[in-house]
Here is the input.
Amino acid sequence: MTGEIRREKILECIKNSHAPLSGTELAKRFTVSRQVIVQDIALLRVANNDILSTNRGYLLNTPNVMQRVFQVLHRKEDIVDELYTIVDLGGKVVDVFVDHKVYGKISVVLIIRSRKDVDAFMEAIHAGQAAPLMDMTSGYHYHTVEAESEMILDAIEKMLKDKDYLVEDIVTSSMPKCPVT
Here is the structure.
C-alpha cells in the first residue's frame, strides 16, 4: 500500500469513528509504526484536513457546528454533574480553560461527548492525582461547548443556569464552527 492510499484510509477511519483513534491503534490497523502515523497525520493536516490531537487519539474537527463558551463556577464535587449535564443535552465539551491572573489563559483540549468520556476523564484525574484547572482560579473556569444547533446550546445554558453553575455575565455568543484554513 502506498503512503497516499494509506493516508486516504487513515482519514476515512478518523471520519467514520465516533471516538478518537490513537496513533497506536492506527499503526496496528495499517501495520506501520506509530511514527509513520504521526507523519501521515501531519501530511493530512497540510492538505487542509482539520484533525485534532487529543490525549485519547486523533479525530476530525467537525465543521459547521455551533459553538458557545460558558463561564462556570461550582465545587469539585459537581464536575461530573456539570459534564453529564452538557453531554446528556447533546453538547460536546471541547475544552476547559482558566484565565489566571499571573499565568494568563491556560487551556486543555478535552473532547468529551458522552458519560463514558466523562467517567474516563474523572478516572484519569483520580489516577494521576491531578487537580482540575478550576482549582487555580477558586472554581471559576470556562468550557467551549459544541452542538448541532442553537436550541441545544440554549438548553445547556438554561440547565447550567438552573443548577447555579453558570456565571451569567460571561457567555459568549454562538457562532458556527468553521474549518481552519
The helical segments are 3-16, 23-30, 34-46, 79-88, 115-127, 150-162. DSSP finds six helices and eight strands in the chain.
